[in-house]
């Protein structure tokens, strides 16, 4: 049997593409290497028997696609608490903290005013560019912490032109941490997958893609499958591990080879009560003396107080070399210094290290780590039909987020549908 389209990857990009293609009348099959759908969105069950998001979690009102899906499937929007004081470590006065925040915003605005194609920044890393700025050491340190926390990379590995281009596409005016879903973001992925039941093969990694004539053969762990078109809906680093026969065109092969996966560890700490609110704190903590460490309140209600702690970039690389007891001790020591001794009294301490995930390469997303690869994203968006690419990294809006994955999947599906050149209402299988 030759399928119209086979999609590699059942994350939000792959599932969104699959549903758009099915609605367009095509025969679609989705192959997923994991034993579950969702990709970098994932839920686990902690020692208290509670299901929680161990992967992608947050959304906001400025992300229309994921917001619409949450409404469609009746998900509960939980508001991330913001009432109360934001905590900086080491501590600063409220006036000093506001000044630091304003300086951080000013650096970001100054950066985004630069044309990413400007030859003056072509060979500069974020670190190189930052050293040329007039800001004081504290403002620069806070900006580094933001970059390493959000992009999960050392600042000397990120081309400044890439960060500018990427950051310009993240256009929310409210915090991206505005909401999370009471049922988990992964439950939303499961809802999408349920609408495609019977057409998703789990635990089926794709090892090789062979193109011959008009058809494409995918060599999988479960045997070969054939399709007229293939959408590779996995992060670029993972797509680059697939063998292509014959090899991809040189431009496209280079475009796949320039990406680097982020390094992030996500921790969820459950407490008997939200003790930080006794101090009129909102649970958000940003550390200035250690880059890439951030905490926020993700309590579903008063009966389920919880903090999520993220460690990104070089910090995550260091922490993952520690034992779990050492990691736990360091995080609890820092939380206790920020929020009080009660931070040590956890009911559960769950850890998800995404840097060793075999099917994503890391988190939250891949970045272009080659300073001269200015056309890598465009090359992947164009693909080499009948082989196409879709992933959050390639989205024109909200790259690295669930929103971006949905958009990229739908855009690629539209391109594939056009290639079939179908009159409206005609089923290609007839």
Query: Can you tell me the residue ranges where pLDDT is under 50 for at least 5 consecutive residues?
Result: 423-430
Beta-strand level of the residues, as a percent range? 15-25%
Based on the structure given, which CATH architecture of the largest domain is correct?
A: Alpha-Beta Complex
Distinct helical segment count? 13
Q: Over the alpha carbons, how many angstroms does the gyration radius reach?
A: 22 Å
The best one-word shape is globular
Quick one: CATH class of the largest domain?
Alpha Beta
Terminus-to-terminus distance = 15 Å
**Share of helix among residues?**
25-40%
Task: Look at the structure and give the mean pLDDT.
Answer: 95
CATH topology of the largest domain: Polyamine Oxidase, Chain A, domain 2
Total beta strand runs: 21
Largest sheet: 8 strands, mixed
């Amino acid at each position: 049997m030759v399928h119209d389209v086979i999609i590699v990857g059942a994350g939000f990009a792959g599932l969104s593409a699959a549903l758009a293609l099915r609605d367009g009348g095509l025969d679609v099959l989705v192959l997923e290497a994991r034993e579950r759908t969702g990709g970098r969105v994932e839920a686990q069950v902690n020692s208290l028997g509670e299901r929680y998001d161990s992967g992608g979690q947050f959304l906001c009102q400025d992300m229309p696609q994921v917001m619409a899906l949450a409404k469609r499937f009746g998900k509960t929007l939980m508001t991330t608490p913001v009432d109360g004081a934001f905590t900086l470590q080491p501590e600063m006065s409220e006036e000093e903290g506001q000044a630091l925040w304003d300086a951080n915003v000013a650096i970001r605005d100054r950066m985004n005013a630069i044309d990413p194609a400007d030859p003056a920044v072509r060979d500069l890393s974020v670190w190189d560019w930052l050293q040329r700025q007039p800001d004081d050491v504290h403002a620069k340190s806070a900006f580094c912490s933001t970059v390493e926390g959000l992009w999960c990379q050392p600042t000397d590995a990120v081309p400044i032109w890439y960060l500018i281009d990427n950051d310009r596409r993240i256009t929310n005016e409210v915090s991206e941490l505005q909401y999370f879903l009471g049922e988990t973001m992964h439950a939303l992925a499961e809802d999408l997958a349920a609408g495609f039941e019977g057409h998703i093969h789990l635990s089926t990694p794709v090892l090789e893609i062979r193109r011959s004539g008009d058809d494409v053969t995918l060599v999988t762990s479960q045997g070969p499958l054939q399709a007229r078109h293939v959408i590779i809906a996995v992060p670029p680093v993972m797509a680059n591990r697939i063998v292509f026969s014959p090899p991809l065109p040189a431009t496209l092969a280079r475009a796949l080879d320039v990406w680097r996966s982020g390094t992030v560890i996500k921790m969820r700490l459950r407490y008997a009560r939200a003790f930080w609110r006794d101090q009129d704190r909102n649970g958000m903590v940003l550390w200035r003396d250690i880059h890439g460490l951030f905490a926020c309140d993700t309590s579903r209600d008063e009966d389920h107080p919880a903090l999520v702690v993220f460690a990104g970039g070089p910090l995550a690389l260091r922490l993952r070399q520690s034992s779990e007891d050492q990691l736990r001790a360091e995080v609890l020591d820092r939380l206790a210094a920020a929020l009080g001794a009660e931070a040590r009294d956890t009911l559960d301490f769950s850890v998800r290290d995404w840097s060793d995930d075999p099917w994503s390469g890391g988190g939250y997303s891949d970045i272009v780590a080659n300073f001269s690869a200015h056309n890598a994203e465009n090359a992947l968006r164009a693909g080499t039909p009948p082989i196409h690419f879709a992933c959050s990294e390639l989205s024109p809006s909200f790259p690295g987020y669930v929103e971006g994955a949905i958009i990229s999947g739908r855009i690629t599906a539209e391109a594939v549908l056009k290639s079939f050149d179908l009159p409206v209402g005609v089923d290609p299988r007839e």
